[in-house]
Specification:
Layout lengths: L4 H20 L12 H12 L3 H4 L7 H14 L4 H22 L15 H12 L3 H26 L6 H27 L5 H9 L3
Amino acid sequence: MTIRTHAAKRLMATSAAALALAWSHPVAAHCDTLDGPVVGAARRALETGNVDLVLVWVQKDDEAEVLGHFQKTLAVRKLSPQARDLADMYFFETLVRLHRAGEGAGYTGLKPAGKVEPPIAAADKALESGRPEEVVKLIGGRIHAGLERQFNEVAAKKKYSPNDIAAGRAFAKAYVEYTHYVERLYDASETLAPGRVQKEAPRLAHSH
């Protein structure tokens, strides 16, 4: 059995909506990598002398600390190429640490360039091109495959003898897993919005 085409299209639409919500609220994703958006903004800020390029990545309460480090970095990087490299790296680390702290995430050091998960890489490329089709296709394909797998699992166990308790329990288990999976996908576009995750969690926990 397969998931019907119109259902797949609705899943694609849901993926796009969830993606749009995710883009509207920057997350920690790969912001701690050397080729991530935070360090990229820091490089541009140091090259242009425009600190505003990095202030957007930190909370207002952290602006003073960033400004202080920014001015010190500009001064030190003039001393020598070696001093420049060290000062830049220190500024990158400070900025990323403050950025992650502002999101309630821990800082475990800067990660090498290229350490980006496929969905994040696709999301970045979509933003650069201005076309979300590829990332929607990536997410939609994954959702479709997962749904079809769960659907086939429960469908295969649906027809069991009323007197076969073991088979009935196997169906019930597969049914619960299937419906919970569908429910999580349905809620994804809402729970990605700020403040919704905690509200939705209790309902999911008590389903079935």
